[in-house]
């Protein structure tokens, strides 16, 4: 690229004047007088087109003024002249990262570090690029290299905390944050991240205080207001949480996460009319819900659908799909032909929803449709605000008769059979605090005639080896083996007297089948279970047992044991 023409600059300098021009240009550059410095660099280049310093420094001005493609060209030309300049490789890496050419940026940082291994800035920015690529462990190694050279390097400490949060190492993230706060007590981003780490550790009151410090330091910090709302929601203060989310959205009107979190708080308070409307903001989140593999017009609830084909697509977890699939029948009642895009593991189970709905999976060819709608949007587009409508169709799933017979034979008729599931996927963020220790059910297992039958699959099975003396939990072989999920679990549930479960998909399955189910809930339960109620509008056969304080599973299982003892004595 030919350097841009100067605006009113003098002709090409004599060779002896170049050093003086460069010296003046650098002084102007450092003083923030970029236009004047640029003119001098361009003047040098008219006489010496391959002058390394003029090419390199003009490139940095281009980067500073947002002309990044020109910056890459100029710094690249400088490196063609002097390929062993570590600073130029470092600056090129910075521009490439700004252009989101992240792999190339890492290559430039690697070249800079090969020439100058003691460049803390290159180590740190290499880490930033790796973090951009979703490689927090590698990023952390780069930050550690930077900190070994410069222990009080604030930027490396700040981003180390981010990487540690991504790696689910909150205690270490807090330590990094505290090192920054010791140097810069009002560092709002770090105070916010410290709150995030405390929330991961389920120390919500301390997290709330950290967010409040972040907001005091930076009152217009929308993310801190949103996280402040999250901590309030953890503390079962949904009304106050809504105020924090409103402040976040006022500061950042397109803030999808804050709107979605407000929806959760609104639904938790039982305001379904407003909650479902707000819940549509999940489509605007930083990590939005899944979309179908084909494009098509959205059904808003206003368009007539009698005689039309409607594609309903799942979005989130298996439990959500089971819970909201009840609304598919309401579409058919309006005369629609339904094509239901479902997770492959649930296709067989969900066949019981409707003999006329066509179930397809993501790998299938989706047939022609007139409109599409997200599964979790159905309560909104159908305008279902009365909670009595949720349970109107229960049961809406059914187990396969031949499998019911098989499992009845295997389990036998003796005793009061209680199916138990105590843990979901431990990798899911939503699982924190939901799982309970299997050994906590020992008082229940000790009741006369009670048989505990494990419905647990995969995660958590190791707890079967560490049960208290005298506690027995029966296990079943071949449970839901193969590609189809829950077909055996559903059949077993039909042979059980009761299901006791943590907040997992097992709870939704038992409720959808209309089976007696007792749900053990953490103190700050998810929105769908509302506040303080012992019952669920979603499932009329479900009873909720809630912690009275965080992690108080002992109280939950004492209440369950007392309730079951009373039931057994009256039967």
Give a verbal description of the structure.
The chain is α/β, with parallel strands linked by helices and 571 residues long. Among the domains are: 1-83, Serine Threonine Protein Phosphatase 5, Tetratricopeptide repeat (Alpha Horseshoe); 309-385; 401-570, Glycogen Phosphorylase B (Rossmann fold). The chain contains 25 helices and ten strands. The protein has helices at 18-30, 34-47, 52-64, 68-81, 86-98, 102-115, 120-132, 136-149, 154-166, 170-183, 188-200, 204-217, 222-234, 238-251, 256-268, 272-279, 318-324, 328-333, 347-350, 378-381, 401-411, 442-445, 487-493, 505-513, 553-570; strands at residues 309-313, 337-341, 358-360, 371-374, 416-421, 450-454, 473-474, 498-501, 517-521, 542-546. The strands form two sheets. Strands 7-6-5-8-9-10 form a six-stranded parallel β-sheet, sandwiched between helices. Strands 3-2-1-4 form a four-stranded parallel β-sheet. Helix 4 (68-81) runs antiparallel to helix 5, helix 12 (204-217) packs antiparallel against helix 13 (222-234) and helix 21 (401-411) crosses helix 23. The longest helix has 18 residues, at 553-570. It is elongated, with a radius of gyration of 31 Å.
Please specify the SSE layout and strand pairing.
Blueprint (H helix, E strand, L loop, with lengths): L17 H13 L3 H14 L4 H13 L3 H14 L4 H13 L3 H14 L4 H13 L3 H14 L4 H13 L3 H14 L4 H13 L3 H14 L4 H13 L3 H14 L4 H13 L3 H8 L29 E5 L4 H7 L3 H6 L3 E5 L5 H4 L7 E3 L10 E4 L3 H4 L19 H11 L4 E6 L20 H4 L4 E5 L18 E2 L12 H7 L4 E4 L3 H9 L3 E5 L20 E5 L6 H18 L1
Parallel strand pairs: 1-2, 1-4, 2-3, 5-6, 5-8, 6-7, 8-9, 9-10
Helix pairs in contact: 1-2, 2-3, 3-4, 4-5, 5-6, 5-7, 6-7, 7-8, 7-9, 8-9, 9-10, 9-11, 10-11, 11-12, 11-13, 12-13, 13-14, 13-15, 14-15, 15-16, 17-24, 21-23
